[in-house]
Design a protein that fits this description.
Helix content of chain B: 55-70%
Helix content of chain A: 25-40%
Largest sheet of chain A: 7 strands, mixed
Strand content of chain A: 15-25%
Structural class of chain B: mainly alpha
Radius of gyration of chain A: 36 Å
Number of domains of chain A: 4
Structural class of chain A: alpha+beta
Number of helices of chain B: 12
Largest interface: A-B, 36 and 43 residues
Number of helices of chain A: 19
Number of strands of chain A: 26
Oligomer: heterodimer
Number of domains of chain B: 1
Shape of chain A: elongated
Largest sheet of chain B: 3 strands, antiparallel
């Protein structure tokens, strides 16, 4: 009992100390279990040095899988200054291989930082990388990198766009679809001690994942053909700009698109922002001129305001509207014509009368339904709106000029999309260039575009009549230069004076042509516009129609469009070479065949008297200059 | 009735000391290799001290503890002389900013560690001889507080705040057990608080330590550095640890990981499980010491056993609380586990004396 008080106090101390220990254990539990993830993350960063391995961007391919943009493997040099012992020697050797100054390297090697990328040591090819690797210096790391490569250079620059120095998309599809294309970066991680020395713990490597593949509606063969034609045209006519769109009129898929001036996507810094940012086929707005008459034509047929084949119009070369006088492009006028001939001749006064018969409200409602005045919604950046007259402000003069395509402005993509609706049975589609986005690893389609129908604008019957009228423009009218033998081509020329500061410019025109084939069931539609060609008669029919024809020929080849008979025959002027149908002479005797082929040149092969084979084959249109080869048995 | 020594205490001590040797090797080989080009440098030194410590433990466990009652004054006088000598430049040498060492080659002796035992013996004797006076604050408590205050002052001149703190806390609690009026301790607590504030004003670096304890992220490369590096070691240890020898923080992140912060490395390598084992060993040693104190038949034995085992446990507690971030960094080593010859010798000696007391219960 003597010790009683002391013992109580000792026991009290024991309890206090046990509580203190429980407190400590509890705190350790908190640090090691509750804060485990947070602290592990911090220390992982503290202990390791990371080198990012840039993921190669996904490929961009055309409709047939041809590569339009891809990533090539390069190497980047990382240095860890604390691990480099002889900084002078390392700097000297690397500078020698990189062919740059000693200081350029030394400033990175001597920096007080955990890791540096040598700027001059980026995007190295494997030969240079090998040389540096052979030096085997501690603290010098070679990390796989990638660099964007555009095999077709400036041909598709406006559509595909380009990437910045860190492979990030900066413009075009590279920007819009950056999140799909960029992939997931990998990393090479090694562990180091507090002084920055490498530790003998295995490096960890996370391989990068390549970005997804972007498949486009474009056909590179057709794109190349378009590009070629545009280049030839700008060279030949010294044009300010040239552009073309090729589309599938039944779906809105863009098959080709091109414009000049263009730029080199790998050296985009050397070009002005105007050139880079303006994708002319969708950005540019200009007075459409006569190609816009197709819209007036289609509205007229749908409304039945005239009978194209029977009703007539007399063109005196000018028409008086609201006190003013509008001239036809042909001096003295076209005389009395059916409205079909009005279309064939692209007669302005004739279209003024069509416009009058429709009236402001109807014409404007068709124009808007065909998509003018608002963006088409194509999946490319930088689309223009175009400008229409305000309906309530439209008097007789505005109605008259709108009817033949003046005083308003449209974009090429609006024009081709609207005409597609005119000829495809009356359906307006949203144009698009991206077909799908595919994950390279899982092969899963992440994103897919399907033809998107906006609305029905006219009936299939109206569409068929409009096609007939447009076919006759090529066969008999202003579009003759687009005629292709054995194919049915429809189309319309356009010649529009350019406007600057509210005034028409003298001798400065935009010459366009819109053409399609086969005229009875269109598979492809082409729009061509040449801005301010010089040293040539400035009519769409003389400049743009031949270009459109060449592009259509390429389309026939690349899209494998079959020959067809039963189309309208071309009316010949004395300058034209005559085309005739080749009669079938197989089975005839030599003399019979010679008689039947009297209009053509004939060449014989073999010694018999009976024709067993002929080339070109029978029932096709051939020029009278063509030599028909007959194989005799 | 004469019994044998407390075997559980002996076994726990030997286990924890050997465990300490192993962990000192693991914690120190990187630093030792870097500094001395010999990864075994620290563990070899510590092993020598361990063997010497074992001999001292054996001798003291045989030496009747009543002898200290007789020589307490002389022991304390020697301690005081050593503590004053160490302050004289040329005799005492400076380590980590404190003139607290007698350097003999790479060996070093810290007199303040030995003063700890000397003072526990002296205060135990004082409490035994002045049992009746202790009821009076002025006649009983003030004189002994004066002695303690003197030693506190000369240790603080080194300065060695950690050791001074351990000594004062041990002795105050020892006085507390003797039956002094509780209200006195409330006053002394208040006084201590004022004292701490005064010390902080005297040396602003202590304030920095407190701030860095409250929010180590406020100055991660300066005053918060040690505690952050300690948390970075403990955290990733998780439940089972990174594995023996596999600490990352010892690679020059945590400075001198074999000393004050060795517990961080133990937590990192052996995880929460290792922490439980270490805590259990300390509690076993403390508990056996308390049992010896409770069962001891004479007053001196009771006070001495209590003082020695409380001295060990309070030092361990302060160290662990610093390492896990419960209190500001004070500079207290972990008995048996931290590298340091004097600390190990004194801890082993304390156990030796405890074992001798355990023979007489």
């Amino acid at each position: 009992m003597f010790f009683n008080d002391i013992h109580i106090r000792i026991r009290f101390v024991i309890i206090v100390m046990i509580i203190a220990f429980l407190l400590i254990i509890g705190k350790v539990f908190y640090i090691q279990v509750i804060s485990y993830n947070k602290l592990s993350k911090i220390t992982e960063d503290l202990w390791s040095r990371k080198m990012t391995i840039n993921a190669p961007r996904g490929d961009i391919v055309d409709r047939n899988g041809n590569i339009l943009a891809t990533s090539i493997v390069t190497t980047t040099i990382y240095v860890v200054p604390s691990q480099i012992k002889d900084k002078e020697k390392v700097s000297k050797d690397i500078a020698e291989i990189l062919n740059c100054s000693y200081d350029d390297v030394y400033k990175y090697v001597s920096k007080h930082s955990s890791m540096e990328i040598i700027r001059k040591g980026m995007d190295l090819d494997s030969a240079v990388a090998d040389k540096i690797d052979k030096l085997g210096y501690d603290g010098v790391y070679l990390v796989v990198d990638s660099k964007r490569y555009y095999p077709y250079g400036d041909t598709l620059a406006h559509i595909i766009g380009f990437v910045g120095s860190d492979n990030q998309g900066l413009s075009g599809l590279e920007l819009t679809y950056d999140s799909y294309l960029k992939g997931t970066n990998g990393e090479l991680k090694y562990y180091s001690d507090g002084k920055g020395n490498k530790l003998e713990i295995p490096d960890s490597y996370v391989s990068p994942t390549k970005g997804m593949t972007l498949k486009l509606t474009l056909d590179i063969e057709l794109v190349k053909a378009v590009d070629n034609e545009l280049r030839n045209a700008t060279d030949k006519y010294n044009a300010d700009a040239a552009l073309s769109i090729v589309m599938n009129p039944k779906t809105g898929e863009i098959l080709a698109m091109g414009s000049l001036p263009s730029f080199d996507p790998t050296n985009y810094q050397n070009y002005s922002e105007e050139i880079i940012n303006r994708n002319l086929p969708i950005w540019m707005t200009f007075e459409p001129g006569s190609t816009f008459k197709i819209i007036t034509l289609a509205s007229t047929i749908e409304e039945g305001t005239v009978d194209l084949f029977k009703d007539t119009f007399t063109d005196t070369g000018a028409i008086s509207v609201d006190g003013g006088t509008l001239h036809c492009w042909k001096h003295g006028g076209h005389g009395t014509q059916t409205y079909l001939e009005v279309v064939e001749n692209s007669c302005n006064p004739g279209f003024v009368s069509l416009g009058n018969k429709l009236g402001v409200e109807k014409l404007m409602s068709y124009i808007k339904n065909f998509g003018f005045g608002s963006k088409t919604g194509i999946d490319l950046n930088g689309e223009g709106n175009g400008i229409l007259f305000k309906e309530e402000a439209m008097g007789p003069l505005e109605l008259a000029t709108t009817a033949f395509g003046q005083g308003i402005s449209v974009t090429p993509i609006q024009q081709i999309t609207a005409v597609s609706a005119v000829i495809n049975g009356g359906l307006l589609y949203t144009p698009y260039v991206v077909t799908s986005v595919t994950d390279d690893i899982s092969k899963a389609i992440v994103f897919e575009n399907k033809p998107k129908l906006k609305r029905k604008v006219i009936s299939p019957e109206t569409s068929a009549t409009a096609r007939f009228a447009l076919e006759s423009v090529v066969s008999n009218g202003t579009g003759k230069n687009a005629y292709i033998e054995n194919y049915r081509v429809g189309g319309k020329t356009g010649t529009a004076q350019k406007v600057k500061d509210g005034k028409y410019m003298v001798g400065n025109y935009t010459l366009s042509f819109i053409g399609f084939l086969p005229a009875n069931d269109p598979e492809v539609i082409v729009y061509v516009a040449i801005d301010n060609p010089k040293g040539v008669t400035q009519y769409g029919g003389t400049v743009s129609a031949p270009i459109a024809r060449s592009i259509l020929l390429s389309a026939i080849e690349t899209l494998n469009i079959k020959e067809q008979s039963g189309g309208m025959l071309k009316e010949y002027s004395y300058l034209d070479v005559k085309y005739l149908v080749v009669p079938d002479v197989v089975g005839m005797s030599k003399s019979e065949a010679t008689k039947a082929l009297k209009d053509f040149k004939v060449k014989y092969s073999g010694n018999g008297d009976k024709v067993v084979y002929m080339s070109p084959s029978a029932n096709t249109f051939q020029s009278v200059e063509t030599t028909i080869t007959l194989l005799l048995n | 009735m004469k019994r044998g020594i407390d075997k559980i205490l002996l076994i726990a001590t030997i286990i924890i000391a050997i465990f300490g040797l192993i962990m000192i090797y693991s914690a120190s080989f990187v630093w030792a290799e870097y500094k001395f080009n010999d990864p075994y440098k620290f563990v070899k030194m510590q092993a020598i001290f361990f063997l010497v410590g074992l001999i001292i433990l054996y001798i003291l466990s045989k030496l009747d503890y009543h002898i200290y009652l007789k020589y307490a004054n002389i022991i304390l006088l020697i301690c005081a002389i050593l503590l004053i000598l160490v302050l004289i430049p040329g005799i005492g040498s400076i380590r980590n900013g404190s003139r607290s060492w007698f350097g003999i080659g790479s060996l070093g002796i810290q007199p303040s560690e030995f003063a700890k035992i000397g003072l526990i013996i002296y205060v135990s004797k004082y409490l035994t001889n002045n049992k009746k006076n202790m009821k009076s604050i002025i006649k009983g408590v003030f004189p002994i507080l004066g002695v303690i205050g003197f030693f506190f002052a000369i240790i603080m001149l080194e300065p060695d705040f950690g050791t001074a703190m351990v000594i004062v806390l041990t002795l105050v609690v020892l006085i507390f057990t003797s039956g002094v009026n509780i209200s006195f301790f409330l006053k002394i607590g208040l006084f201590g608080l004022v004292g701490i504030v005064g010390l902080i004003i005297a040396a602003p670096y202590r304030m920095k330590r407190i701030v860095s304890f409250l929010n180590p992220w406020s100055d991660p490369l300066g005053s918060g550095y040690q505690i952050l590096q300690s948390l970075y070691a403990i955290g990733p240890g998780g439940l089972l640890g990174q594995g023996f020898l596999k600490s990352r923080q010892k690679y020059f992140y945590l400075p001198e990981p074999q000393t004050d912060f060795i517990f961080s490395i133990i937590s990192e390598e052996l995880g929460f499980l290792g922490v439980l084992i270490v805590s259990f060993l300390f509690l076993v040693i403390f508990y056996r010491g308390m049992i010896i104190s409770l069962k001891s038949k004479d007053m001196f034995g009771k006070f001495l056993a209590f003082g020695l085992s409380f001295g060990l446990i309070i030092q361990a507690t302060l160290n662990l609380m610093v390492v896990v971030g419960l209190i500001p960094v004070t500079g207290v080593t972990l008995p048996f586990l931290s590298y340091g010859g004097s600390s190990l010798l004194v801890s082993m000696a304390s156990i030796g004396i405890l074992l001798n007391i355990s023979r007489n219960i």
